[in-house]
Amino acid sequence: MIAPPRTRFLWQAGGFISLGLGIIGIPLPLLPTTPFILLAAFCFARSSPQLQLWLETHPRFGPMIVNWREKGAISKRAKSYSVAVMIATPLLSLAIGVPAWALAAQVLCLLGAATFVLTRPSA
User: Fold this and answer.
1) Domain count, the chain
2) Cβ(74)–Cβ(67) under 8 Å?
3) 64 and 94 belong to one structural domain
4) Which domain holds residue 61?
5) How far is CA 21 from CA 30, 40, 113, in A?
6) Cβ-based burial of 73 (10 A; exposed 0-12, middle 13-18, buried ≥19)
């Protein structure tokens, strides 16, 4: 469903911002890629059929969008990478001396995220 012209710009801007954050998240361990790419697909679906098609047929991002849309699934590779990064992140934080309260908050958030990722079907 394409939004009315007045709001189409906002959806498209949200799509580009989400896509940018998703791309930045590829090399950064604390910034997740998949949720931002899914959000970009959602925004583009409401603003631009051309951008939606481009993202859905993109060789890197397309499969994750299709897997999520059709099955609510995350690829085994993405799950493995995600959980590995979720384990490494608090270890790195511990090594650099992050305060205990921040480390505890980080572990709690990452446990929630890992639980979500691991309970999704595998693609």
Assistant:
1) 2
2) yes
3) no
4) 1-72
5) 11, 10, 18
6) middle
Q: Are residues 54 and 82 both part of a single domain?
A: no
Choice between 11 and 5, residue whose per-residue pLDDT is larger: 11
Q: Which two tokens stand for residue 24?
A: 């930045």
Token pair listed for 29: 């361990």
Distances in Å between the Cα of 17 and the Cα atoms of 23, 41, 44 are 10, 11, 11
Q: Is the dihedral of CA 109, 111, 121, 27 positive or negative?
A: positive
CB-based contact 31:21 (threshold 8 Å): yes
> Both ends of the chain: CA-CA distance in Å?
27
- When computed from its CA atoms, the radius of gyration of the chain, rounded to whole angstroms, is 16
105-114 pLDDT, tens per residue? 999 999 998 9
Residues 33-45: pLDDT tens digits? 888 999 999 999 9
Q: What is the pLDDT of residue 96?
A: 95
User: What is the reported pTM?
Assistant: 0.75
